[in-house]
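Exam review. A common question shows you a sequence with its C-alpha cells and asks you to describe the fold in words. Practice with the pair below. Do the first one on your own.
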Amino acid sequence: MPIPNIQQPDILIIDDTLRLRKYDGNFDFAWGWYQDEETLLLVDGDTRPFDYKRLETMYTYLDAHGELYFIEAMQDGTYVPIGDVTFSQQDMPIVIGDKQFRAKGIGRRVIAALVTRAKQLGYSYLLIDEIYDYNIGSRKMFESVGFYPFESKGKGHRYRLDPTDTAN
C-alpha cells in the first residue's frame, strides 16, 4: 500500500542512462512484454498472454498497492520504457520486458535504488512475495542486492532484506 503522506516521485534518476518514471495510466507500449511466453513464465509462472483488460487490471492493482514505475533506458538521446517495477515494503515485482536489456545489470541497479529509497523512508525490512525457483536470473539479482530466501512458497521462495543492515 502507498504510504500516507509520502509522495511518490514523478522521476527517480538511477544514473545518466536509467531512470524510473511514475505510472501515468498509459501502458500500451507494455502490451508486447505481456504477450511473450518466456517473460510470462518468469514473472507469472504461466504462459497465457495477457489481454488488454488483464494488463489494465494488473497495473491498476500494482499502482494501488505501491509505487508503480516504468523503467526507462536512454536510447539515442531519448528515454524509452523497457520494463516496470513496483516499490512496496511487501513486494517488488520487476519485469525487464524488452529482452535486449536483460542480463545487463539493469534489474540490480533498479532494485538497489529502491533499497536506498526504503532506507530513506525508514523501512526496517523489504519482502519479495515469491521468486520462482527456476527463475535463476531473478534469484541471483535479488540476492546480489542482499535479499535472502526465508520461506518456501508455491513454485519458489519468499525473500527478505533488512535495508538498515546492508551497505547498498
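Now try the second one, then compare your answer with the model answer below.
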Amino acid sequence: MPASQTTPASRTTPARRVEEMQALHVLCRFCASALYEKPTAEMIAAYAQQADLFLGEPFASAAPEPGRALHVLFSAAGQPEEGEALLQELGQDYTYLFLMVGSSRTSPYESVYRTDDRTLFGPTTVQVRKAYEAAGVELASSEHEPDDHIGLEFAFLAHLLGGMSEALQEGDQERLGAAEAQLRAFAQDHLLVFSDAYLYNLTRQAQSLYYQSVARVCSNTIALLSQEFDMGPVTSVGRESLL
C-alpha cells in the first residue's frame, strides 16, 4: 500500500477498503507497542521467531526499508547471547529516549510540545482523554500518566481502524461514518499536530537501529493515514520546539 498507489476512498471497492483499514490497523498497533512498551526478552524472542513478518505486508508496501532493517535486526537475535545483547542495547536506548527526556528532548507526550512551559497534563491531555471516553475506549495507562502519550494515541487510532474494518465487513455505514469522523478529528487535532516534531527528534536521538527504524515506520504510517483520509495540510508544532 505505497502512498503513491493509494486509491481515493470514492474509487475503492469495499473489499479493498477493508484491506486498507486492516493494514493501517496493523501498522498503528505496531507503532503503539513500539513507542509505549519497554523492550522485554519476551518481545525480542517473539520478533526473532517471526522476523519475516517485517518483510511481508503491510510493512513491504508501507515501510519497506525500515521493515528490512527490523527483519535483519531480529533475525540476528535468535540465539540467547544475541538476544540478551539486543535487549541490553534497546533497554539503554529506551531509558534515554523515554525516561531521560530532559537530555534526549524526545518526550512522548503531546502536551509537552503544545504548552509554552513544556509541561505534562496540559489542556491537550484533557482533550485526548475526552476523545477516548467519547469513543468508549479505556487504554492501558496508569492514573499517574498523561493520556496523550504518542503510543496511546496510536493505539486509539488502531482501535478506530479496527472498528471501521468491522463496520465495512458488516455493511454498517452509520458505525463506519462515526468511527471515521472520530479518527479524522483526533488525528488532525492531536497526533498530526506534534508527531512530526516528535519523530524528527526521535530519529536524531535514537542510538539503536530498532528505534531509528520504528521512527521511520511511524512517519510512513502517519503519511498514509493523512493521505488515506485526505486530511490535507495540518498545522503542526515546529521541529525545533524541543531541540
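Model answer, second protein: The radius of gyration is 18 Å. Confidence is low (pLDDT under 50) at residues 2-11. Full marks require stating both points clearly.
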